[in-house]
Design goal:
Structural class: alpha+beta
Helix content: 25-40%
CATH topology of the largest domain: Serine Threonine Protein Phosphatase 5, Tetratricopeptide repeat
Largest sheet: 7 strands, mixed
CATH architecture of the largest domain: Alpha Horseshoe
Number of helices: 19
Number of domains: 3
Mean pLDDT: 91
Oligomer: single chain
CATH class of the largest domain: Mainly Alpha
Distance between the termini: 61 Å
CATH superfamily of the largest domain: Peptidase M1, leukotriene A4 hydrolase/aminopeptidase C-terminal domain
Shape: globular
Length: 668
């Protein structure tokens, strides 16, 4: 099989095929106490070891199918190098020729990068704690010993013991629920849930969440889960889930194979807009706009049920096969839902995506990570994560679609899903299948695969967008630029009846014209323009996180100090990296906000998921490594914003704190 340098495992010799996972959730210790039992495929009959990925796990014992002890050792191929700390340690288990399964007793540590343990104060209910996991890209190894690579797929069953007040959900189908122990001094009151996943998954799709959760059915096979105070709003927001799922089945030409499609609306600190865990997508509450305007994220995660979960990139170097296809699929779903026969809505959404792609390419991102086909090697896949895979991948597919025609390309998509279902593939596999499928089509003869795959930067072809629906947005942006640059009269145009996409397109046009990606921004709007925009459209008051994010970006670049309370509230009440990282970067690059960005982050970093905290620390030129521990300690001792800010944001505490900060900037 294809070697994956992001894993320390040895599936080319001994491969896992099924996991039986028994785990107890211990909120007091912030730990999972588990036994992982793997069924083995002896790829090499002479293999004497099973090697698994681990990170920040405590390995207790290892036994075989006869309960006989097996010798094991933990190795660190990267030594103590910080550069390779993301790889964790290799668990090497000695196996005999007759060994058919191994069982590993272990426990996670609070440092697990896959687990976020939230105290009650960080939940909506404020009474019970909460746990959720995020395993993509290579964080499953800090959740469970595993072959942590997309190229290895396995089925699994799970038995989960939780406190009696808690409800667990998993990337699997719930089978049974029972009471484990009565209320006594030894165990307390607890319950046991069993789950089953019969469709093989990669380790990054193993997911668990535990909290005070309630369920609302949306259809016979779809439901939404969340905390009691949020579940009704989530059920309203995601009411179209079944419609999206049915449309996806029609477009893919194959039925949904995962049994159920549920949604878990997470706590505010979740780092991604959505995570496509099979059977239950985890979504961020930043999607709760109150008008279903951000539900396309659900369409994206539904699309992953085919492109990503069923047909999977062989390694993270080929991540675009997951995300480029899914972005294409998502936009097709939404276009059909809105009866967008001419795909004008599709292009409106793609225009915004194209700007995100320009943003990614114009930042100081290494050129190696601006390629569609990556060469991550043993580097950290999180470092390569950006909109490149999504948008550049989407535009590759659209370029092919334009050449062969929409009907032919959509038929090809169905054949692609059918051929590679339950498998993994590389970019070369995709290219070979496409060129064979269309071998008689002259339109693809000169397609420049090498440039698309391996050249960094923007796509080699400018997409011919239908800008019909974007025209009003672009025109209004030009009017406001004329106000800003030339003192023209303020426009009277109302945007009250615009779609959220049109509004974000308008703000994107302003961001593009102000060169917001340069550090510092080259052509920011004037403070007076920002305040006029707020007075006209109340953008800082929007419940739509996409709109609020863009306006905050404009206002921070303009050095408008009145936006600071809104920005601080936004970045400390949600942890979605799409919003949090750019806002921290922009705040850090500003004159008014450089110190504030560091202060706020250090005062709130425990709120964020470990993946988000790691990436923001990098953006702010901080490090949590041992070599920089003294710097962190000094900064912690000198910051004026402590952990007491965590949940005081938005009230009098913010007003006082921000007043002090703004006054200090004014004195300068």
């Amino acid at each position: 099989m294809l070697r994956d340098a992001s894993s320390l495992a040895n599936p080319q010799e001994t491969r896992v095929t099924h996991l039986d996972w028994k785990v107890t959730v211990d909120f007091t210790a912030s730990a999972l106490i588990g036994r992982a039992t793997y069924t083995l495929d002896r790829v090499d009959p002479d293999a004497t070891t099973l090697c698994l990925d681990t990170s920040r796990l405590e390995i207790l014992t290892v036994v075989d199918q006869n309960d006989d002890s097996l010798s094991f050792a933990l190795e660190s191929p990267g030594g103590d190098s910080v550069a390779h700390s993301h790889l964790g340690q290799r668990l090497v288990i000695r196996i005999a020729p007759a060994t058919t399964s191994v069982a590993i007793d272990y426990r996670t540590t609070p440092a697990s990068s896959a687990c976020q343990w939230l105290p009650p104060a960080q939940t909506s209910g404020g009474v019970f704690p909460y746990l959720y996991t995020q395993a993509q890209a290579i964080h499953a190894r800090s959740l469970i010993p595993c072959q942590d690579m997309p190229g290895v797929k396995f089925t699994y069953g799970a038995t989960v013991t939780v406190p009696a007040w808690a409800t667990p959900v998993m990337s699997a189908i719930l089978k049974t629920t029972s009471r484990a122990h009565p209320d006594d001094s030894q165990h307390g009151s607890s319950k046991i849930y069993t789950f089953e996943q019969t469709v093989p998954i990669s380790a990054y799709l193993l997911a668990l969440a535990v909290g005070q959760l309630e369920k609302r059915d949306l259809s016979p096979r779809c439901a939404v889960w969340s905390e009691p105070s949020v579940v009704e709003a989530a059920a309203y927001e995601f009411a179209q889930t079944e419609e999206f799922l049915t449309m996806a089945e029609d477009l893919a030409g194959t039925p949904y194979v995962w049994g159920r499609y549920d949604l878990l609306c997470l706590c505010a600190s979740s780092p991604y807009g959505g995570m496509e865990n099979p059977c239950i997508t985890f979504v961020t509450p930043t999607l709760l706009a109150g008008d279903r305007s951000l539900a396309d994220v659900v369409a994206h995660e539904i699309a992953h049920s085919w492109t990503g979960n069923l047909v999977t990139n062989a390694t993270w170097d080929h991540f675009w096969l997951n995300e480029g296809w899914t972005t294409w699929f998502q936009r097709k779903i939404m276009s059909r839902i809105h009866h967008d026969d001419h795909e004008q809505l599709l292009d409106l959404d793609a225009i915004g995506g194209y700007q995100a792609l320009q943003d990614a390419c114009s930042r100081e991102m290494p050129l190696a990570y601006q390629k569609l086909v990556l060469d991550i090697g043993d580097g950290d896949p999180d470092e390569a994560y950006s909109s490149i895979a999504y948008e550049k991948g989407f535009h590759l597919l659209r370029a092919l679609e334009r050449r062969v025609g929409t009907s032919a390309f959509e038929a090809f998509f169905q054949s692609y899903v059918q051929k590679y279902a339950y498998q993994t593939l590389t970019s070369d596999d995709f290219r070979d299948f496409f060129t064979t499928y269309f071998e008689d089509n002259e339109a693809i003869r000169d397609f420049d695969w090498e440039t698309w795959f391996y050249e960094p930067g923007m796509p080699p072809e400018d997409p011919p967008f239908d800008r019909t629906l974007a025209e009003h947005s672009a025109q209004l942006a030009q009017v406001w630029l004329a106000v800003d640059r030339h003192g023209r009269m303020l426009p009277t145009t109302s945007i009250a009846d615009w779609t959220s996409l049109q509004t974000t397109c308008f703000l994107d046009a302003l961001l593009l014209q102000t060169n917001h990606n340069s550090v510092p921004p080259k052509d920011p709007l004037k403070v007076s323009t920002i305040r006029a925009l707020q007075k006209a459209y109340r953008l800082a008051d929007s419940r739509n996180s996409e709109i609020l994010f863009r306006f905050c970006m404009l206002a921070v670049a303009a050095e408008d100090e009145t936006i600071l309370p809104t920005v601080v509230r936004f970045i400390t009440t949600q942890g979605r990296m799409k919003f949090t990282r750019p806002l921290y970067r922009t705040l850090f690059a500003s004159v008014m906000g450089r110190d504030l960005a560091v202060q706020v982050f250090l005062g709130h970093k425990e709120f964020y998921h470990p993946i988000c905290a790691k990436m923001v620390a990098s953006d702010l030129l901080l490090s949590s490594s041992s070599s920089n521990s003294g710097v962190w300690a000094t900064m912690r001792n000198t910051i004026s914003l402590g952990k007491s800010w965590m949940w005081a944001v938005g009230g009098a505490a913010v007003a006082v704190g921000m007043g002090i900060t703004i006054a200090r900037h004014r004195r300068r």
